[in-house]
Design a protein that fits this description.
single chain; alpha/beta; about 45% helix; globular
Length: about 280
């Protein structure tokens, strides 16, 4: 039996992955009732911000598998939603990725050399497969930061990149590498110059420096009290409903104002595929 070696960057015990279950029941409006503040503050809004707190880790078991499935579903339905919003002159809907990090506790050599930390201890993530594989938390940090860079410079490409990276570069086949990520960026249509822009944004994870995108996520994680992955924020409000894709899309549609023409068009996009995390 492998022994889990706890490092200085061990995450807080209250950080959890959602327990997964399947559901054969779905009430399209039940999810809306879980966030009345969202509807009160943003009803009839034409601006929709979606923040999805996830991890690039693909080795955390069923939870990671379902995060991947959720991204695939969003990749499928978002173009349909944006066709509706653009037709009505509204802002397009983009899903912004957010990632959770911990800072190593100190400036010792242990922090700088901790395999679960990058940028010499500034950002840490637990080992994805403790004692079982060649990858460590530092590899997850690198993947997270790279995805943030893709979103910063090419937001319309992030979801396709993230989804394809999961399928083309699995850690189970030792493909969880920078080179594989660059190949995926090429596959989703980024030129050599654009891929270079992503890499410059990423920087050097071996240097003793912070990274502005990871630091922003870390600050926001604290201020918003994000303790569970995945967590979904809609227009700054925490979504507390079912994590079925159809429930999430229903919630997004409701921001247009239930009964409005945009809402009626949007609700037609609600997918039939069903999976959920218990909350």
């Amino acid at each position: 039996m492998a022994t889990l070696q706890l490092s200085l960057c061990t995450p807080p015990q209250h950080m959890l992955l959602r327990r997964i279950s399947t559901s054969s029941k779905f009430d399209g409006y039940s999810s809306v009732a879980h966030f009345p503040a969202l509807l009160q503050d943003t009803a009839h809004s034409t601006h929709i911000e979606v923040e999805l707190w996830i991890t690039a880790n693909d080795a955390c078991g069923p939870a990671c598998d379902e995060i991947v499935s959720l991204k695939k579903e969003l990749l499928r339905v978002l173009p349909k939603l944006n066709t509706i919003t653009e037709k009505n002159g509204d802002h397009s809907i983009a899903v912004r990725p957010r990632f959770v990090y911990w800072k190593c506790g100190g400036k010792s050599l242990k922090c700088r050399d901790d395999p679960d930390c990058a940028f010499q201890g500034h950002f840490c993530v637990p080992d994805p497969d403790p004692g079982q594989g060649p990858f460590h938390g530092a590899d997850i940090v690198a993947a997270n930061v790279r995805e943030s860079c893709v979103y910063k410079h090419f937001p319309s490409k992030w979801l396709a990149f993230s989804t394809l990276f999961n399928s083309m570069c699995p850690s189970s086949r030792n493909m969880y590498t920078q080179q594989c990520a660059m190949d995926v960026l090429k596959r989703v249509g980024l030129t050599m110059a654009q891929r270079g822009k992503v890499q410059r944004c990423f920087g050097n994870a071996a240097q003793d420096t912070t990274h502005p995108l990871a630091a922003e996520d870390m600050d926001k994680q604290v201020s918003m009290g994000v303790h569970v992955l995945p967590t979904l924020m809609l227009n700054g409000h925490r979504y507390m409903g079912s994590f079925q894709t159809n429930a999430i899309v229903t919630a997004i549609c409701s921001i247009f104002g239930v009964g409005s023409s945009q809402h009626r068009q949007c609700i037609k996009v609600v997918p039939q595929h069903r999976f959920t995390w218990d909350v």
